[in-house]
Amino acid sequence: MKEYYIWLLSVMGAANPRSLRLISRFGGVKGVYDALTAGEDGTGFLKPAEEKALKKSSPDKARELIEWCGKKGYGITTIEDEDYPELLRHIYNPPILLFTEGSLSGIDGEIRINVIGTRSPSEYSYKVASALCASLAATGIVIVSGMAVGLDKCAMTAALAGGGKVAGVLACGIDAEYPRGSKAFRKSVVEAGGVCVSELMPRDAVRPAYFQNRNRLMSGLSSGTLIIEAGERSGCHITAAHAVAQNRDLFCVPPHDILDPRYSGVVRYLRDGAIPAFGYIDIINEYLPDLSDKLNDSAVPRDLRKPGAAVAGGTPAEPAEQSKMSVKPPAPQSAPKADYSALPEERLKIVEALRKKKLSFDEIVRKKLCAADKAYETLLDMELDGIIERVAGDRYAAV
């Protein structure tokens, strides 16, 4: 039935909940094809763009794509197939099919943790992400992330260095390349037994609107989501909302500095009951009771399973010692302004210009604030990180 699922995807587009409703209404994907090609729509579902796509799509074209994917080494898994991830199958609006590079069976049955964070993290967050993900990978946990630059790449690199597997969820088609230059890294993911997945057609380029849809797959594939660093306007909140809606565990690294707006985004979740991750054992402990047989037990020190035990070689303070500590309340401080000094030079130039004046895309390119061929990708990344935003008149402004 793969050709009919590809046909339906080409008609309805990715992340379209009406696709499953059509399958349910007509008793299967082949029934959808028979009904729609016979002119028996009657659903009121199809929009003008979908009706136009219906006229251009066919199972024959889908079969050509299947053959092409086979030559390229890409896999195709439909929601009917046994190797379709079970956790993902039961979320709201699961993808009707997945294009893969690598094997889904490599992560099947494993505990998977989705790791997210900003594309422009602090040095502290880099260190934390590296330490946590390397340790989690050493225990047998699969790290899921979005293949973006920043903490996504850091988390996956650390997991691979720790001898583990990773699953990358792409914001583009499996044959497209985003971020630029990521093909080599994808190859290392596959060679380590991991997988890259996409619900988009293989050659589809990255689309800004798709990032929100992609986030539901990252959390849906995973038992829990770990937020490393997020500001108040971070795109991580979209993924966190999906995780909560999907009844997944939500972990947060406590802020390095509660007055630094770069960490303010995790506070709301910690207040509402998210699990603080002071070390990898805080995550491991959530899965030991029922899933200990899935973990590499030799990588989980038994003394760390005891409540209150130290992580990373530290020794917890005794109550008596704690009572002797003299803690003076700090003098009242105003919240600092966002510090973007650690941004790459090109992005810092853009922020400084937008702090002075709102600019359109064409004006940013004309002022040579960034390379014209990279402008779209750069501005998209900065917008998703909450560094800039689009305002009235299709202009950009610094947040």
Compute the separation of the termini in Å.
48 Å
Oligomeric grouping of the chains: single chain
Strand content: 5-15%
Instruction: Compute the number of strand runs.
Output: 12
Domain count: 3
CATH architecture designation of the largest domain: 3-Layer(aba) Sandwich
Write the layout of secondary structure elements.
Elements: H1 2-12, H2 18-25, H3 29-37, H4 48-56, H5 59-72, E1 75-78, H6 86-89, E2 97-102, E3 112-116, H7 123-138, E4 142-145, H8 151-161, E5 166-169, H9 183-191, E6 195-198, H10 210-220, E7 224-227, H11 236-245, E8 249-252, H12 267-271, E9 275-276, H13 280-284, H14 288-291, H15 319-324, H16 345-356, E10 359-360, H17 361-366, H18 375-384, E11 388-391, E12 395-398
Parallel strand pairs: 3-4, 3-7, 4-5, 5-6, 7-8, 8-9
Antiparallel strand pairs: 1-2, 2-6, 10-12, 11-12
Quick description:
This protein is an alpha/beta fold and 399 residues long.
Structural summary, described in words:
The chain is an alpha/beta fold and about 400 residues long. The protein contains 18 helices and twelve strands. About 10% of the residues have low confidence. The longest helix is centred in the first third of the chain and has 16 residues. The chain has three domains: about 70 residues, no CATH class; about 200 residues, 3-Layer(aba) Sandwich (Rossmann fold); about 55 residues, Orthogonal Bundle (Arc Repressor Mutant, subunit A). A nine-stranded mixed beta sheet has the order 1-2-6-5-4-3-7-8-9, with helices on both faces. Strands 10-12-11 form a three-stranded antiparallel beta sheet. The termini are far apart.
